[in-house]
Amino acid sequence: MIRAFESSDMNDVLNVWLEASIRAHGFIGKVFWESRVSDMRETYIPASDTYVFSQNGTVKGFFSLNGDSLAAMFVSPDAQGKGIGQQLMKKATSLRKKLYLTVYRDNSRSIDFYRKCGFLIIGEKVDEHTGHLEILMKYSS
Fold first, then answer.
1. Cα separation, 67 vs 47, whole angstroms
2. d(CA 13, CA 60)
3. pLDDT, tens digit (0-9, with 9 covering 90-100), for 2-23
């Protein structure tokens, strides 16, 4: 079930984010992601419209929208490949006529997922926090 984020979901959302970030971004050290948890808790999640995929009372994935930006889309590593990401993306794209996102160029699995969901590559930029290249993508309904 996809539902709006509640404050009681914070620890579960952060755990999903951290586990999935470390798994998907092996080219960036684990310490970097661990150092960003408080920013996620105190700044990014509160500033965004966040929705969670909950199954049997457990958060398995989430996405966050900040304006027309898909600021986050993460599924717990043990729940990936089961259609949760597709369900989350369907909800996200139903809430906005257009969406933009950035994804690390070295994260080919996510780039492929976003392409399958209708996103197009529109550019590249360097992430100021890591120095790694990011792909800019856009979705229009």
1. 10
2. 8
3. 999 999 999 999 999 999 999 9
CA–CA separation, 68 and 49 (whole Å): 11
DSSP 38-77: HHIIIIITTTSEEEEEEETTEEEEEEEEETTEEEEEEE-G
Inter-residue contact 88 to 68 (CB < 8 Å): no
Place of tokens 């914070």: 10
Question: How far, CA to CA in Å, does 138 sit from each of 11, 18, 25, 98, 119?
Answer: 30, 25, 21, 7, 5
Per the listing, tokens 């990936």 go with 80
| N- to C-terminal Cα separation, the chain | 23
Q: Tens of pLDDT along 63-106? A: 999 999 999 999 999 999 999 999 999 999 999 999 999 999 99
**Whether residue 141 has pLDDT greater than 90:** no
Our CA angle for 12, 130, 19, nearest 5°, is: 20
Distance CA 128, CA 91 (A): 29
Mean of pLDDT over the chain: 96
Predicted TM-score (pTM) of the model is 0.94
Pairing of strands 49-55, 58-66: antiparallel
User: What pLDDT is recorded for position 99?
Assistant: 98
